[in-house]
Each structure stands twice: as structure tokens, then as C-alpha cells.
Amino acid sequence: xVHRIAVIPGDGIGxxxxxxxxxxxxxxxKKFGFKLAFDDFDFASCDYYEKxxxxxxxxxxxxxxxxxxxxxxxxxxxxxxxxxxxxxxxxILFRREFDQYINLRPVRLxxxxxxxxxxxxxxxxxxxxxxxxxxxxxxxxxxxxxxGTDREVVVQETVMSRVGVDRVxxxxxxLARSTPKKHLTSATKSNGIAITMPxxxxxxxxxxxxxxxxxxxxxxxxxxxxxxxxxxxxxxVVVASNLFGDILSDLGPACTGTIGIAPSGNINPExxxxxxxxxxxxxxxxxxxQGIANPIGQIWSGAMMLEHVGEHDAAxxxxxxxxxxxxxxxxxxxxxxxxxxxxxxxxxxAAALG
Length: 354
Ligand code: NAI
Ligand code: MG
Known about the structure:
With about 350 residues, the chain is of the alpha/beta class. The chain contains twelve helices and twelve strands. The strands form two sheets. It has a ten-stranded mixed beta sheet, with helices on both faces. α7 (about 195-210) links the parallel β8 (about 185-190) and β9. The radius of gyration is 20 Å and the shape is globular. The protein binds 1,4-dihydronicotinamide adenine dinucleotide and magnesium ion. Magnesium ion binds near residues 246 and 250. This is D-malate dehydrogenase [decarboxylating]. Keywords: Manganese, Metal-binding, NAD, Oxidoreductase. Has multiple catalytic activities. Apart from catalyzing the oxidation of (+)-tartrate to oxaloglycolate, also converts meso-tartrate to D-glycerate and catalyzes the oxidative decarboxylation of D-malate to pyruvate.
């Protein structure tokens, strides 16, 4: 088995954590007997922008569009290129052009990571947030009328298509079915948003008929955020629209103290296009160049990428190796009060794979 991976480190600490991610993936491939063919690309970075006046070459889709997955670092150097240019010229284009309609983030309490929630130990919190990534509240439909006058009005429409809602629900139910707890939670707000959210609920009910082995419930988004903080152990798979999912997918990792090491996938499940796997954090210009960035978010994203291409055992082994390393004070990086450098931490994860 050979998986072709496009590697895009991007900017800042993306360039420092990416080699560690690749190191661990190579170790996993060796151990589990598959091959990874890496192709490196320097675009989707501010260096590229300064040289070429654009974030990516004209033919970027041909260059990376047939890979099995894209392994991404981070983009953005706000002192050199405005963030809206760097982000919209790279990651946002990937999401749209490659129809990555799932944004997937694990929420998992890890050893060695201080949780802001009291009385929780590793293992207590372990769930997934599945966010709709292409439509919903983040539509471009709307406008401003009578600008600059007392009659100024702005309108922005929410778009929910049957195809768009059903496909994210299907992904979430499939994910729930694949887990031991076989449970799904849907985020809604059908008491206040009286057209689109009841539609979302209706499609959940309809989809659930195909998954009679999966138990499910739903919460209004306001009380759901409270439950994330007070009862995070109740969740298994949480599915939400674009806006609600955006909020939950930051809140979840924050509750486990892992926002700095959290991974994510922007996924096209049918694999018609490559999916992008990247740490949640950005390019961290404040610590770039010191060799102290935590590589765990990048490495964990690599595990999600292996899961996506079907290397389930290797993916699970990497997550386990991350836990082994995080449990040891001397192997953690400075953000987690440890003495390890970026590469010491990365090497330790590779070694822990055995
Ligand atoms: P950031 O995530 O880069 O940094 C926030 C804080 O967390 C900083 O103090 C940083 O030192 C720390 N931090 C982040 N990752 C870390 C790691 N692996 N190890 C240790 N400490 C870490 O967010 P910020 O500062 O708001 O944005 C910086 C640039 O990154 C901007 O240009 C922004 O647009 C971009 N960005 C890109 C993202 C992406 O590529 N997906 C996501 C978020 C921000
Ligand atoms: Mg966000």
C-alpha cells in the first residue's frame, strides 16, 4: 500500500512542527508495513506570497488535487501579509474547491495537559465534534441596503440544502456507529431559529432511521455549551451546523486544555478530492525560530490522516504514543511546563511507537 501525501508546512512554526509530523508518520509506516510518498510544496505561505504576489500558483489544483491527502502546517504572518489574504488564498480555497464538507476534531483529555475542569482524569472525556464545513450560517447571500443612512439594513441568509445537511449527518452517524458507545448528539436551536433549525432536526430524525443501532439526542446550542463544561463525559459524537460547530469545536478542546495540541481534519469523505489535516493552532510568530513549539498537534493530525486513508492500527498507535510521551514531564515542551525541544518531543513520539 502506498499513500501519496502532499506536504505543505506553510508559515512560522508550521515549518518547525511539520518535520516532526513527517518523522512520526515515517516511523508508523515502517512499523505497520505501508508506504508514504511525500511531495513537498512551498506555496500557501507568506514567503511564496512575497515572491509571487499570490498565495498559490495558478495550477495549485493540478499540483495537489490527486494526492490521497494534504498534510498542512499553519498559514499566516500578520506583520507581513494581512490574515484575510493568507487564509482566503489557501485554506479556505482548499475547503471550498475540494468540497471538504466535514470539519472533524477530537475532544480528548490527555495525560500531562492541565484541564480547566476539576476532577477529570484522562479517559473521562473522549468525544468528537463534527462540524458542517461548507454551507449553513456562513453563506455569501445577503447584503447591505441604504448604507450610511438611518435606514441602514444588513441581511445574511442561512443556507441548508438537503444534500448538504444529510451528508454531514450521515458522516456523523457512521462515526457514531463505529464507536463503542454508539451515541450521537445533535446541536440545534429550533426554538429560536424557526425555519432552518427545525429543518436540521427533521433531517436528523430521518437519518436516524438508517441507524437504529445508534442512540441519539439533541440539545439547544446554549445549554449544550453548558453541558460541554459541566458534563463533558456525556458525549460521544456531536454534530452541528457550520456556526454552532465552529463554536463547539473550539470549546471542546478548550475544556480539555488541549487547544494548543489539538488536531483537525477538513474532510471530503468520498475521497473525490484530497482532505486536509492540520493542527488547530496557527503559525505562532511569537515563538517561531526558537525550536520550542509543541509538535503534538501536527503529529496528532497525522494520525487522523492515517485513519482517513485506512491505516487504522497505525493511527491508533500514534495516539497511544502521544499519550505515553505526554505522561512524562521531561518529554513535554515548554507550553506544557516541560524542558523538551520541538524535535526532542517529536523523536520521543516516534520512539514510543516501538
Ligand atoms: P496561534 O495559534 O498561532 O498562537 C496563539 C498562541 O498559542 C501564541 O502565544 C503561540 O505561541 C501559542 N501556540 C500556538 N501553537 C503552539 C504550539 N504548537 N506550541 C506552543 N505554543 C503554541 O494564533 P495567533 O497568534 O492568533 O495567530 C498567528 C497567525 O496564525 C495568524 O496569521 C493567524 O491568522 C494564523 N492562524 C492560522 C491558522 C491555520 O493555519 N489553520 C489557525 C489559527 C491562526
Ligand atoms: Mg474557529
